[in-house]
Amino acid sequence: MANPLTKRTPSHHAVNKPRKRRRLEQPATKSQSHNKIAQGKLAHGKVVPINDLAWKPVALPDTLDDAEGFFGLEEVDDVEIMRSGRSGEEVQYRVVVPSELGGMTEVDEMEWQGFEGGELDEAVVKGDTLGDGKQERKRERKTKDSAAQSSKPDKNEIKSLSNGFSALQDLDNEEETSEGDVSAWLPLGLSGHTLAALAKLKFWHPTSIQVAAIPEILAGQDVIGKASTGSGKTLAFGLPIIESFVTSRAAITGNKNGLKYPTALILSPTRELAHQIGQHIIQLCTNLTTESPRVAILTGGLAIQKQERLLAKADIVIGTPGRLWEIMSTVPGSLKRLQKIKFLVTDEADRLLSEGHFKEVEEILDALDKAEINENETESKTSQPRQTLVFSATFQKELHRKLASRSKAANNVLDDKASLEYVLQKLNFRNEPKFIDVNPVRQMATNLREGLMECGAMEKDLYLYALLLQYPKSRTLVFTNSIASTRRLTSLLQNLGLKPFVLHSEMPQKARLRSVERFADPATTSSILIATDVAARGLDIPSVDLIIHYHVPRAADTYIHRSGRTARGELSGTSILLCSPEETTPVQRLISKIHASSDQKSETPPLCTLTLDRSLLHRLKPRVTLSTSIVSATSSKAKISSEESWLRKAADDLGVDYDSSDFAELESSAKGRGRGKGRKKATRNEATTTSKQQITAWRAELADLLAKRVNVGVSEKYLSAGGVDVEALLQEKEERSSGNRGGAEFLGRVDIIRGWE
Ligand SMILES: Nc1ncnc2c1ncn2[C@@H]1O[C@H](COP(=O)(O)OP(=O)(O)OP(=O)(O)O)[C@@H](O)[C@H]1O
Hints:
alpha/beta, 8-stranded mixed sheet, 7-stranded parallel sheet, 21 strands, binds adenosine-5'-triphosphate, hydrolase, RNA-binding
């Protein structure tokens, strides 16, 4: 007896009540899968790669109308899908051999309560990013014919479509079917394919920006869309692009030579965001019930040759301006292909269009606008004009205006009218763009809690450490204004026993992507990322709990975007600014301007003034002081050693002997006339005089301090009041009695922060 691919709902369902099962009609090829089983390739209980499963075509019904569009799909029986990781990202496929072949019986299966920590889930189609072949294979499994499915379904059709899709995946659970209603999307005019993909992602309702923008884009309108961070802007432009691909595949197929042109070009200001947009679109396309578009992501830092190959076949191109222009301007034929796009999207548009970043974007736009039509491409003359879509949470002009300056108000976030004028100047729209602002009064995410903590300029390290200890089980993103600071803070916190990841633009691209991936790892709830503003825009990392602005942001839009990395969608989050006394007033002024138009005037102030428990800071200070000394001694040493190796090489080139003292003198007399001579000399002296033994001694002293508990209140004994996490204390005692040293970390939530309303 075959066990159809099953969906197990969260474990409490499966454990408490036996699940009803629905069997798919047995297709003719059942014997093939049994052969594989008999040969031991699919032995019961074996975990196998998805491509090795016994895939077989779904039998077609007698009349094609009954198929509800699901032609050419493949299905698989006798497999359990195990999901692990916090959000179930890791998927494994375990073979369940039918009973007649000696495998698990239906009764066995109903009693089996699953893998610990894992979940069974549905999976009929599979896919991956373009380029590794898997997406190609998936495309083959899907129908080549979309014509019959492109008409817009009504509500009843959608229900049956949903049901048809569910049936293929054995989504036979009543709770699931009632929840799996995507009818809220119907007024937007999307096709059944797209709706089925949304259902697979469990996106039951469109967000406000999606409601407002999608119908306009589908109607051929140019759109400028403004909506707060985390509100689903990517799909607001992504869905119409996918929809256009799905419903008019034939129309966009290229010239008579069979050449295909991309449907859309999406410009992103940062590499990470480009990859994220790509993944987001691929995720949706993977669940389409028809041929899905091929996505090419073109960013710097990765091999250009591979990206050129991807571009040659791509249906949707996502890129950062630098790499895109490099390819467009050098690779023959690429510009011509991109000139045929139907959609041009600028995401984080105010950033892309701002002075200083605009040059390459301008070159790209100019090149796209040049109509190079030759006689072989007559269809270009009749094709629809390109639609321009512009999205951001903010529109502002003077990006680098200093926040801390005493000049009036760096509230450079534009109002609607100014936004429109600004973008109109920069972009060549084909028709009058529709300006959609779904949050005209509120710039910040609804569930965001904002705080400001004043501390001495030299105390920021200490405050940062204390805050990180206060939030031990959080995903925390720390923003600085310089690469040097991200590096220094990373070392400082590593010395203190924390494990921060780092992200800045001077890192190799693969390391950048790895940092984001590890920080976002769903297997852990606690992680720290120290980043420059390269992470401020667009990054959609699930469940970031806390944003710490170690340096105050340089502009209002940066504050909005940094803070927008938390409290995304329905989630809540916290943002804390660390301000020196001179920074406090301008920052407060700035934040109140950002909130000035907010409709929440009568409620609590938008920005709470926070303080930290002084006695705790006092106890933590020796740790931070030691760590700071180690960082400055080791980084000065490293700097001197790299300078010396440069000088040694220069001496070699000149054919003279290298003598470090001669060069030090020469260097100091050359540099010595300027300001800072004394400081530089002192640093060099300090670095050279800080012996290795001294650094080792500091490290030992710090390790000693870290091994001791930090008490949090008035008593040297552990407190039973004041918000101490008693459970954590007890656990700590257990660890100690079992020989585990423990105690290196600050324990639990202790409410050392005062001031939240
Ligand atoms: N209709 C929907 N239902 C549920 N989740 C959605 C929906 N649309 C988008 N999302 C999810 O919401 C999250 C935020 O979306 P997205 O990254 O597009 O936000 P954004 O508005 O572009 O934010 P930012 O301005 O910070 O770039 C993503 O994880 C996305 O998958």
